[in-house]
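User: My collaborator sent over this chain with a note saying "see what the structure looks like." That's all I know about it. Can you take a look?
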Amino acid sequence: TPPVLGIDWGRVASVERPHVYEETVAPSYAGVHPILRIAGQAMMTDLVARRGGGFAAMGYVPPDWHPTAWTSDDGAAWTLRPIEDTAFTFPVALARGADGTLVAVGRSGPKPVAWTTPDGVAWTRHEVPALGTDGTAERMTSITAGPNGFVAGGSVGPELFDRQARFWTSPDGATWTPAPDDDAAFRDAEVRSVTVLHNGGFAAAGVAGSVQDPTGSVAWLSPDGSAWTRVDDPAFVGGIAVSLIERPSGTLVAVGSDLDRRNAVAWSSTDGGASWTTAPDEPSRQHSGGYAWMTDVTIAGDALVAVGDLQGLQRGTAMAWTSKDAMHWKQARTAPVQEGAEFYAVIPGGPGVLVVGAFGAPDSYVPDVWQSPAR
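Assistant: Without extra context I'll predict from the sequence alone. Here is the result:
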């Protein structure tokens, strides 16, 4: 039968990898517990379609964790585009503005940072103002393009324990303004996804509770990206929402997992994010004796396509799901190209959908790109 969108997956022709790096595990340890290391490791964290054609992806390279990018004219062959050598710098989210400018956001050390480019090849770094003054880390984790520029979300707080949500706005991706710190709306939470709405406003979703002990999720709504209203819906208790989109109908859809990542979970809202409904449990979003979680969701035609992972004892299997109503999801078929791999981010393109991720986890993370329908 012909391959089906979101159900049948194939690996693209080529993804350029960074140079080989030296083993970082102490020889005394590696000698007792050998660890499989695959050359050319990097994390591809997000991707976007370029204006006029082609695609760009962002990520970072070990062992010192410096940022890098990739570009592709057709989605099938990807070329590495080094950005800078600053260590402990992590671009994690990418968006395209109305004028075609690509903007990536993340962190560098304890500070939020952004990069811009017209084409994905040459990138310019921009420092982002932080509200805190005591050296506590502030990080950008998500970005979307709106009618008047860009809105990013993230958090402030230590690597572990409690964090406070953060938002920033920018007219061009280069100059950023932090949203006023609203303790009641931002307390005990981190933004994981932000999206523009058809009415010009914005919605966001994230995780509530501490880093190592999350309690559930939370949503936020804003008319302008600066003033935010928090939505603590009972449907979010016990779940981790990491990706959020709006369908052409106006329905909001969020995906993620339960707190233990035993079940992939989806939520939807038909009233602009004021209230939420959890999709009923179903075998397609579970993995018997193991773990199942979603990392991202997109719209392809009239279908939703979510991506994530199934995991048993150690190595996972990259997985996808499709849905017409956000309540019931069909699990993709598995193929050898999905074994030992993880899907991170998905967009329309190629001509169905494209996904960035890695294979070799948990010992190695080698960047790769997949497409569906499989060619």
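A starting point for your reply to your collaborator: The CA atoms of residues 65 and 88 lie 5 Å apart.
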